[in-house]
Design brief:
This protein has two domains: 106 residues, Threonyl-tRNA Synthetase, Chain A, domain 2 (2-Layer Sandwich), CATH 3.30.980; 259 residues, P-loop containing nucleotide triphosphate hydrolases (Rossmann fold, 3-Layer(aba) Sandwich). It is extended, with a radius of gyration of 32 Å. Strand 5 and strand 6 form a beta hairpin. The chain is of the alpha/beta class. Helix 8 packs parallel to helix 10.
Length: 486
């Protein structure tokens, strides 16, 4: 039997820690106390200033009211408050937009920050596992700026060290439910700073009527609708290829005819030439055939011949531009050509004739890959975005995702990781046709928008506008020949 002694209860307590002022020498305690007091005063003043900056209405209004009461009495205070109410009423009636933007939303911002985000922030960050602990110290994301826009709250957050935006993207649904929002989106502002969009309502719930025909058409910024922030939704055609994806009834026709409507003045003057293929027998493009220079209503040999003809034009025009210019311009004397293909899959995937299908694929790939510089753009509409259907969708630099069937299709159309940042195209309602998420190459954040609502009466007006147009006289090209309008 061993006689070695063993401690039955080893000490496992934490090492005692003494307050820092106990270790300060006696003669240095008074100067240290003065420094600490000054530091506390500075911190208190800074925090008071921050409170006033974050809640100017809630802090300055009571303070000024109390000062007015103490300085002038109760009657002048009541008169001042009545004058303030009258002034706000006149402001709201005179310029409601300015009143909502600078008055009501400012008050709503303070209210939601004080009653929603500040009280719940600490507990939500801990329960969502966005706060971290290291060596007994808690690192918690800091709530920075809150801006309420009525339909959404923009909450700016400073992340903890060694944290990536992808962590926040995975917690979108938890954050939305925690703060009482319909959805949450994550946007990167700068390194270590993200902005959370807590959406409370849909500003695109109502249809958007078409505007008047534009006076001048900019092919780099063609307005086809409005974004959820109220700005124009613009598509780039010059130097771009456009792919529009959506299930039946999602509003692909709204985007298409909004685009044609905005191009109508240039089409009428011959500056833009529209070519169309509609395998559905003209159910879509046949609504306004006057907009197209040529249109084919099937997916057979005639449609394939048109594709190959345009592909040949692309190569010929590129040969003429060699050594002269790098991108099409109006001064070339040749029209900008837009090929519209409705139900693109009927040409390149569902065509039973293998030879026609392969010819169509080669022609469209030539146009999309080589047509950017010579002034050719493809606007393709399709229902199924799978790789087996559109194997060359990477050649479309601008992509529009309307209502989709499956969550995985969102990343197929807009790019990997876009759905995690909030682009929920698969959640678009059936009662809002034309609502879409759009994204261009080189743009990290997608944009939500709604196309104009083009009615049958608008198409009749569009046809009349185009039928009464005049032919534009192009300037002479560099080779000496005169340009001809379509």
């Amino acid at each position: 039997m061993s006689r070695r002694w063993v401690d039955p209860a080893p000490f496992e307590g934490a090492r005692p820690r003494l307050p820092w002022w106990v270790l300060v020498p006696g003669k240095a305690k008074w100067p240290a106390a003065v420094v600490v007091l000054a530091w506390l005063v500075v911190v208190g003043v800074v925090r008071l200033v921050l409170v006033v900056v974050r809640y100017p209405v809630a802090t300055l209004t009571p303070a000024l009211s109390a000062w007015c009461w103490w300085r002038f009495g109760l009657s002048p205070l009541v008169l001042a408050l009545l004058s303030l109410v009258a002034g706000l009423t006149i402001w709201a009636g005179w310029d409601r937009g300015s009143f909502v933007r600078h008055g009501w939303l400012r008050l709503l911002t303070e209210w939601r920050r004080a009653t929603v985000y500040v009280p719940r922030w600490r507990s939500v960050m801990r329960l969502a596992e966005l706060a971290k602990r290291d060596r007994g110290r808690e690192y918690r994301p800091r709530l920075r700026r809150v801006r309420s826009e009525g339909w959404r709250d923009r909450v700016r957050v400073r992340m903890v060290p060694a944290q990536s935006p992808e962590v926040w993207e995975l917690r979108r649904e938890e954050l939305a439910h925690a703060f009482g929002a319909l959805s949450c989106r994550v946007r990167v502002v700068r390194p270590r700073v993200v902005e959370l969009d807590f959406v409370h309502s849909d500003p695109l719930a109502r249809p958007v009527p078409v505007p008047a025909f534009p006076g001048e058409v900019d092919l780099k910024r063609v307005t086809v609708g409005v974004t959820e922030t109220g700005r124009p939704w613009r598509l780039r055609l010059l130097g771009s290829q456009v792919l529009i994806v959506g299930v039946p009834g999602a509003g692909k026709g709204s985007v298409l005819w909004s685009l044609v409507w905005q191009l109508a003045p240039s089409v009428r003057d011959g500056l833009v030439r529209l070519m169309g293929i509609d395998p559905k027998g003209g159910m879509e493009l046949g609504q306004c055939p006057d907009a197209f220079d040529r249109v084919v209503y099937d997916n057979g040999p005639e449609a394939v011949a048109l594709l190959e003809e345009i592909a040949t034009e692309v190569k010929e025009r590129a040969t003429r531009y060699r050594g002269v210019r790098r991108l099409w311009a109006r001064s070339t004397g040749e029209p900008f050509t837009i090929l519209v293909v409705d139900e693109l899959a009927d040409l390149i995937a569902y065509q039973p004739d293998r030879q026609l299908r392969e010819r169509a694929q080669r022609a469209i790939q030539t146009i999309t890959s080589q047509g950017r510089a010579p002034g050719y753009a493809v606007v393709g509409l399709v229902q199924d975005p799978r790789k087996e259907v559109v194997s060359f969708r990477h050649l479309f630099t601008t992509r529009v995702a309307l209502r989709l069937d499956e969550p995985g299709q969102v990343d197929m159309v807009l790019g990997d990781g876009v759905r995690q940042r909030g682009a929920a195209a698969h959640e678009i309602g059936e009662n809002t046709p034309g609502v879409a998420w759009t994204k261009q190459d080189g743009q990290r954040e997608p944009e939500r928008a709604r196309a104009f609502h083009v009615t049958d009466a608008d198409l009749v007006e569009l046809g009349g506008f185009l039928a009464g147009g005049t032919v534009h006289a192009f300037p002479e090209r560099s080779d000496g020949s005169a340009g001809a309008a379509a």
